[in-house]
Amino acid sequence: MTNLNHLRPRGKAKTGEISLSDLLFCPVLFPIALYAGTSTPSVLSSSLTLSSWIVYLLDYRSTGSQTGFPFSSFLPAWLCIATSSDLTTSRFRLYLSFWTVLLYRPLFNKIILKFSKSFTFGEGSIIVQGILLALHSSLLRLEGMDSYRTFHMARKVADWLKWFQDHCSNPTSMSLLTSWVALSVLSVLVVIIYKVLDWRVTTATRKIFHLSVILVYLPGLKYDPALLYYCSIGATLVFISLELLRWSEKLPFLTNGLSAYLKHFTDEKEGGSLILTNIYLLVGVSLPLWLWPGSWSSPVPLSLYTGILSVGIYDAAASLVGSRFGRLRFSSGKSLEGMIGGCLAALIAIIAIQNDYQLTEDIITQFGEEILALNPRHLTFVAACLVTSVAEVMVDQVDNLILPLVMYSALLGIPKVMPTLITKLSI
Predict the structure, then answer these.
(1) pLDDT grade for 420, boundaries at 50, 70 and 90
(2) Can you give the pLDDT at residue 366?
(3) Residues forming a β-bridge with 335
(4) Contacts of 201 (CB under 8 A, 6+ apart)
(5) How far is it, in rounded angstroms, from Cα 78 to Cα 394?
């Protein structure tokens, strides 16, 4: 029996299927993003990509699934430890990397089978890679500790909590936290009101939550990215915990209400027993912040804004313009008008962010002149928006996961090749 039946069907299909974007696009997004940020290939992430392809060959073809652990299951893990030079200096890192890669297949299949029809193959690849990379990164931090005894671990936690308390005591952080709590409450009230009054939920309605995350992340990135980093992780863990509680139906008095209110806002991309739209939105806008390898000194680089630019602004604008004015449709159902509207909205947002949230006619005119003068920095902004728009209209996956990784990679990766392109364009 094949595991294809447990993948989320697309469109009107009754069974799951695997497209080219599932195999060739989604599994490589994390390695490309990590390479764009550090200019150093991530052997671990590349090994997880190879694991994705091997999982497809073993378990997700129409010929059926293999049981046990054939030799090919070990191949990515062996290649990881054989090609990574820094693992030879630490036995802890060697074992950790080996088991991280080896766990990919059982974890992937466990999630797909446990939450049947909740994920496409590509979405599952991104999620499992993200989970394993996060666990690997977290466990690596234990390597430098002097002791692993409970007392020393507790003291580390206490030190972090004290830092967090001190950090939140300044007026700026307090103002940010207050506004974030207020926006969270308002978002919950929107869900409650629409359900109680039985109002119809449209594409425009769902974009209210995009506006909410914009209002959270723009000031957070500008004034206190470190606080935003930790709060985004905490909020994501809360969302995941609530969804697992709702799925388990262990507390009917709570889970029945959660299901009723959340299902009122689901769209055609939801499937199976999980409701993931809200989690995908939060994770998508947070991914660039989590992936960034540098410091959070102010002002932060534009690449940290790519979650907001791609999901909060581009995707929202493309969806609103496309649903209202869309006439010329691609095979994916997305419209050319929506693509253009999203690109323009993202570019305008980039101009405003680069000019300290100011947007005047002179600033826009100067931006256009810089593009005509083939300014590499400004051409990079345009190219990143175009790459993101092409991914949005061509790839049949959840935009909230795909677009931030694409724009983040484009914004950091294009400058590495831009000087060569500018030279050729100038000749």
Answers:
(1) low
(2) 80
(3) 329
(4) 194, 264, 265
(5) 35
**Is the pLDDT higher at 423 or at 103?**
103
Instruction: Please report, for residues 2, 66, 160, 310, the alpha-carbon distance to residue 303 in angstroms, rounded to integers and kept in the order given.
Output: 40, 41, 27, 11
Token pair 């989604």: residue = 26
Give the position of tokens 């405003």: 352
> Quick check: 311 and 284 in contact, CB under 8 A?
yes
Number of helices (H) and strands (E) in the chain: give both, helices first.
19, 0
- Give alpha helix (H) positions in 292-398: 306-307, 316-325, 336-354, 361-372, 376-394
Tokens 């410091």 sit on residue: 295
Q: What is the DSSP letter of 315?
A: I
CB-CB contact of 58 with 76 (8 Å): no
- For residue 367, CA distances in Å to 109, 370, 379 come to 49, 5, 10
DSSP string over 5-31: GGSPPPTT-SS----HIIIIIGGGHHH
Assess contact for 113 and 6: CB atoms under 8 A.
yes
Distance CA 227, CA 243 (A): 24
The token pair that represents 408 in the structure block = 């983040």
Ordered alpha helix ranges (H), 115-224: 121-140, 150-168, 171-196, 203-223
Q: Are 282 and 236 in contact (CB under 8 A)?
A: yes
| Cα 394 from Cα 403, distance rounded (Å) | 12
Lowest mean pLDDT among 153-157, 223-227, 295-299, 390-394: 153-157
C-alpha 289: how far from its chain's center? 10
Backbone angles phi, psi at 294, to 5 degrees: -90, -165
Query: What single-letter amino acid sits at 54?
Result: I
Q: What's the per-residue H, E or C state across 249-281?
A: CCCHHHHHHHHHHHHCCCCCCCCCCCCCHHHHH
Evaluate whether 273 touches 119 at the Cβ level (below 8 Å): no
CA distance 389 to 403: 8
